[in-house]
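Backbone geometry:

***
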Amino acid sequence: MKNKVKWGVLGLLLAVIFVMTMMKSPEEITSMLSNVTAQVKTFSVITHILFLLVIVTGLIFKKTRGVLFSLFIAFLSLSATIISIIYMILPNVIIFGMFFVLILNAYLKKQLNFELNNQKPVNLVFGISGLVFGFWYLHWVESPVWLNALFYSPLGSINCPTMATICGFLCLTAKPRSVILEATVALITLYFGFFGIFRLGAYVDIVLVVCALFMILRLGSYLDLKETIMDKNKTALSVKQ
């Protein structure tokens, strides 16, 4: 019953987000996000520096990696929530506020495990892709885009670079994972990936679509495996009885 309530709330929030994002024209959304990006340049530089420090420190010090990576994606979600409140971007307030709560919940339940030593290559490929394009998001910045994106892409401020980075980190996690966290992030990221491509002309958002689809497929296979194990346990228990 508890799980049904969780998934019901998630479905309702997704519906609300969908409706709210369709209430403004692509031109209005582009103008709004460009304005936000231009006004948070200093914060974007700080976030990029933090990103590099967290990655390097996490790779060197394995014992603190889980805490650092978990706190960083929580920080990105919280900062995006606060900035969305300041600029009155209500869908983002809901999205990143929800991400923040789910990330903290997963961390407290020890469902954010960044064991990279025995990580499957496919997880590393998608994880690194999400991190690279979240850090170096080639949209919303002035020309030369390829250079300015290294410093001013709105990581931790607006949707796509923040979602790409969070997806990148989650792709690097090992089991046990938080199903509700990964499903929420993947579904919302998938929607905004398609939204960015087809409504805003942000073709770099193909990375969001690819990473989100990978997470959904991985989550599906994980759930299938979990169900199979449960069935086997039930069968073994019935045989013993």
In short: DSSP finds ten helices and no strands in the chain.
